[in-house]
Amino acid sequence: MSSNENVRPPQAERRDGDERRELTLGTFLRGSVHVRRRSDRRADDEYHVDWHEPDLLFLAVTTLLLSVIDAFFTLTLLRHGATEANPILDFILHKYPELFAVIKMGLTGGGVLVLVAAARARLFRVIRVKTILQWVLLGYIVLFGYEMWLLKDIF
Q1: Is the pLDDT of residue 42 over 80?
Q2: Structural domain tally of the chain?
Q3: Which of 55, 67, 75, 142 could bridge 108 with an S-S bond, Cβ 3.0-4.6 Å?
């Protein structure tokens, strides 16, 4: 018996070529409904998961609530002579004033959604995206304090 008799013929590639580990809109939406992965497989993995830590919920909800309060404070201050510092929102405020709050909430909500979805990733392999969300919340807290200081003169 020769050694060639035990060699199996090569089999055709069965994989379809799609990388199933890529994050797409479909995997994001499916993962929101059917939770499977709650943590990384290994300690050094930084993959997206279907379930997030409770502190991310706190960061996201608090940021969104402060954004709503900021919209109300901004409109109040604008009625008393202030100007909008954000040039994009200033344009929207003058061109489409009825859409100001909707667009402001949409931009903030979309940004927070992306930051929460990518919270475990690292931006430029340096800073965790969760840290960026923490800085955004800190920025809103500072903005809230500043607007409260401006409003004390009005009321």
Answers
A1: no
A2: 1
A3: 67
**125-134 contacts: CB < 8 A, separation 24 or more?**
130/56, 130/59, 133/56, 133/59, 133/60, 133/63, 134/59
98, two tokens: 């009825």
Provide the domain limits for residue 103: 68-155
H-state helical runs in 1-97 = 25-33, 54-79, 87-95
Strand intervals (E) in 93-143: 122-123, 127-128
C-alpha–C-alpha distance, residues 151 and 154, integer Å: 5
The whole-angstrom separation of Cα 35 and Cα 15 is 25
Residue 116 lies in a domain: yes
Q: Tens digit of pLDDT for each residue in 78-134?
A: 899 888 888 988 899 889 888 888 888 899 999 998 888 878 778 787 888 888 999
DSSP one-letter string for 62-77 = HHHHHHHHHHHHHHHH
Within-domain flag for 31: no
